[in-house]
Amino acid sequence: MKRLAACLLLLGPGLAAGADDVDPEPPVKGKLQGSWVFVRFVIDNGGGGQPAPAPGDMTLTFDKDKLTVTVMNRADKAHTFTIDPKKKPAHIDVTDGNSGKKLEGIYKIEKGELYVCLGERTRTRPTSFEGKDDPVLVLKRQKK
Known about the structure:
This protein is mainly beta and 144 residues long. 8% of the residues lie in helices and 39% in strands. The protein has 2 helices and 9 strands, in the order ααβββββββββ. It has helices spanning 2-9, 29-32; strands at 34-42, 58-63, 66-71, 74-75, 79-84, 90-95, 102-110, 113-118, 136-141. It is globular and about 30 Å long.
């Protein structure tokens, strides 16, 4: 979780999120399963700080109810996650495998990309993918 928190807090230049072509039905846990590779951050709060990780340097792997974060080929302890795809936007909650601390967030799959925004900074569930208060992690499914 510390690696995920650190990666989400890295601030790159502000990026705009495209909101066209949303999948017609909310994604279910099965659509999340597998590995997703970091593409970019969406952040709209002035940027600054450290550069974002390079594309491909971070992977999120969803396996049943476990989430493993891998940064620079070093895997973090597996965390657990739950989702509620019926909420608008869909909810995801990630529980740290070490401390048991839970982070509330939102997610969506759009145009083949997974958007995840956790309330790392605000300590509350985000309500949009604009990246104003909490950065949005954008990932693409890892090819086998």
